[in-house]
Design brief:
Elements: H1 14-24, H2 29-42, H3 48-60, H4 62-70, H5 82-92
Helix pairs in contact: 1-2, 1-3, 3-4
Length: 94
């Protein structure tokens, strides 16, 4: 047997799992793909305040989220958070 020293995956909260599901089924295929993949990749590592920002962003609606992420509409200050910028970077680096 070999002893592996790899780190175990982070334990994901019920809140993060719920947000991953919500992000994957927003109603618009483009945002489903972007936000769902982002959520699966990053939500386990976010603090509660960042999860709240992500939750608030989802509540804004997929039409607006898509327009903001694509740069078609200016992002309102309430949604221009570190999490939103992380999503933009995630999209730009895919």
């Amino acid at each position: 047997m070999s002893s592996s020293t790899s780190n175990p995956p982070p334990v994901m909260s019920d809140r993060a799992r719920r947000l991953i599901y919500q992000a994957s089924y927003t109603g618009m295929k483009e945002t489903d793909l972007l936000l769902g993949h982002f959520a699966k990749t990053h939500l386990a590592d976010l603090c509660d305040a960042d999860l709240t920002d992500f939750e608030n962003l989802l509540a804004a609606g997929d039409h607006w989220i898509y327009a903001w992420v694509m740069g078609n509409e200016p992002v309102p200050d309430a949604y221009d958070t570190a999490v939103f910028r992380l999503i933009k970077d995630f999209k730009d680096n895919k």
